[in-house]
Amino acid sequence: MKVLGLDVGTKTIGVAVSDAFGWTAQGVKTIRRHESDASQDFLALEDLIKEYEISTVVVGLPKNMNGTIGPSGEFCKTFAEDLHKRTNIPVKLWDERLTTVAAERMLVDADVSRKKRKKVIDKMAAVMILQGYLDSRN
């Protein structure tokens, strides 16, 4: 039972997948969003769900530091609901506060160039979202 982790943004979607045991998260890719046609984004995700035999999806929920949900969080909630309606598999929301900051710090510490960081930051954030979710279950 594999789990898909998503870091959903307005321009990209970072994607990570768990191993079959649900212990570890690995980065898969970053999907460039189709701003004028969101159905293309969902089709790409549906293909990944089939390819990796996903049983559950975890979408990062960006909360404000005080725990409230702002416009980005509402956007992610709507995205998660729409994904569930399209796939009919469980879609869970996971608090993603500071995951992008932590991913950026990890890449800087690993001496990854700014240009390369920009290409993988969303995928790394998806890994951190998914790993947090997996760790909470085990």
UniProtKB/TrEMBL annotation:
Which protein are we looking at?
Answer: Putative pre-16S rRNA nuclease
Name one molecular function that GO assigns to this entry: hydrolase activity, acting on ester bonds
At the top level of its lineage, which domain of life is listed? Bacteria
Function field: Could be a nuclease involved in processing of the 5'-end of pre-16S rRNA.
Localization (cell): Cytoplasm
Q: Which HAMAP family match?
A: Nuclease_YqgF
| Gene assigned in the entry | ruvX
Annotated family: Belongs to the YqgF HJR family.
**Lineage of the native species?**
Bacteria, Bacillati, Bacillota, Bacilli, Bacillales
- Biological processes annotated in GO: rRNA 5'-end processing
Kindly list any coiled-coil regions of this protein: none
- A Pfam family assignment: RuvX
Naturally occurring in which organism (per UniProt): Alkalicoccus halolimnae
Q: What is its EC number?
A: 3.1.-.-
